[in-house]
Design the sequence.
């Protein structure tokens, strides 16, 4: 089992543990769910596996922050619906559900009972609907072709602990974050690889297998090919597949080694590109023109994700990535006040790290301009007034600081920091700056 890329926090302590497994050999070559259509009946151990998966999912959803955007979920489910072959859609037991996790890492994975998860970090890298279909089609094939069950049976037959059971048992969550997680303090573990630690820390073995480790070379390749077949059948363009995996490989000048998940893993991405090229070479070009409204709709649904993921990257200090994302969000909609506000926050963070006083001043001026643009686009948004107040205060423009702080308090009197800002206003008033 290759966990060599599992990141600085995870440390493999031991090899797979042997467990005694009784019983006869279970079949590991299984027909896909779609082969039996409405007549599909899950196997007994398959139902048990789904039970475990549902229980895991319940724990997962308690710990992660779900990205709340009902229209985005509808959109993703629509793409899934288009990719889904009839035989799969007809079965009564397996229905897909897509959830988005607010997390800037590159991750998408599927539970065997049809729950698909995708991180904002991955969604924000996708450039068109065909690329989105590439990732979804791959994950859907893991479900349709019953890869989790096949992996479990294969491990049992070899009298190994179910691959991932042994990995999770052997992985030690190390360092401060690990200790914070052991204490149940997930807030403290605010690091980029926090989710992988949560998965391991909670013992969410199926998610560790699906999201971090993957199903091994052969089944991953099968998932690639199955995804391309679905794309071609649905009228998507599999020629876009290498581009999304290239985009995931681009670390935008940030350190890529912090990425723990399967889709953030460079060798695994290289393997995806390789299978895409192999499939494309064997299949005549299937390029097709985008459907009416498709490009537009994709941009509308994805733009907020790109912007909000930029905010997460800002908070993590991944400024180059945040900048690229904000520029992209701006290119998709130049009149979104939140994007201008985030751009201002980016410039302010950049100015804090800037040693050259001229460049520092220039970044602050850019921040100020973006804040004014945010105010112009939405005068009722409190955040920009607060930042403008602080900027003015630091530049000793106390009259302007007073105006902006008062405006901020009017717009958001119950803000978390309202007390502090009121202190500033009092101080400014005492010193006669508020007119
Ligand atoms: Zn996969």
Sequence:
């Amino acid at each position: 089992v290759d966990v060599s890329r599992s990141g600085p926090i995870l440390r493999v302590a031991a090899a797979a543990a042997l467990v005694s497994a009784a019983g006869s050999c279970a079949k590991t070559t299984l027909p896909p769910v779609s082969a039996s259509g409405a007549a599909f009946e899950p196997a007994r151990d398959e139902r048990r596996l789904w039970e475990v998966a549902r229980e895991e999912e319940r724990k997962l959803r308690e710990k992660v922050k779900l990205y709340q955007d009902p229209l985005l979920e509808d959109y993703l489910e629509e793409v899934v619906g288009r990719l889904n072959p009839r035989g799969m859609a007809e079965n009564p037991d397996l229905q897909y559900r897509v959830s988005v996790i607010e997390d800037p890492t590159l991750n998408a994975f599927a539970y065997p009972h049809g729950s698909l998860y995708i991180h904002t970090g991955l969604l924000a890298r996708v450039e068109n609907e065909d690329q989105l279909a590439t990732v979804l089609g791959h994950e859907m094939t893991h479900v349709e072709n019953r890869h989790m069950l096949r992996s479990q049976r294969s491990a049992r037959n070899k009298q190994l602990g179910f691959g991932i059971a042994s990995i999770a048992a052997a992985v030690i969550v190390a360092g401060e974050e690990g200790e914070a997680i052991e204490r149940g303090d997930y807030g403290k573990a605010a690091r980029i690889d926090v989710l992988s630690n949560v998965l391991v820390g909670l013992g969410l073995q199926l998610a560790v297998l699906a999201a971090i480790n993957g199903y091994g070379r052969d089944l991953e390749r099968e998932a690639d090919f199955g995804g391309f077949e679905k794309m071609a059948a649905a009228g998507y363009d599999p020629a876009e597949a290498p581009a999304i995996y290239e985009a995931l490989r681009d670390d935008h000048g940030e350190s890529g080694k912090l990425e723990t998940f399967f889709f953030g893993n460079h060798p695994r991405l290289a393997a995806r590109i390789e299978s895409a090229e192999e499939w494309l070479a064997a299949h005549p070009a299937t390029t097709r023109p985008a459907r009416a409204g498709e490009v537009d709709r994709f941009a509308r649904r994805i733009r907020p994700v790109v912007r909000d993921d930029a905010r997460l990257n800002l908070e993590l200090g991944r400024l180059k990535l945040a900048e690229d994302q904000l520029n992209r969000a701006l290119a998709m909609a130049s009149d979104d006040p939140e994007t201008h506000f985030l751009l201002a926050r980016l410039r302010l963070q950049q100015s804090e790290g800037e040693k050259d006083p001229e460049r520092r001043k220039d970044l602050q001026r850019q921040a100020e301009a973006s804040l004014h643009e945010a105010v112009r686009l939405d005068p009722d948004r409190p955040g920009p007034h607060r930042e403008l107040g602080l900027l003015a205060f630091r530049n000793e423009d106390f009259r302007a600081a007073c105006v902006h702080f008062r405006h901020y308090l009017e717009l958001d009197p119950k803000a978390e920091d309202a007390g502090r800002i009121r202190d500033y206003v009092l101080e400014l008033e005492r010193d006669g700056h508020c007119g």
Notes: The pocket of zinc ion is lined by residues 138, 142, 214, 220, 223 (CB under 6 Å). The two ends are 70 Å apart (CA to CA). The longest helix spans residues 294-316.
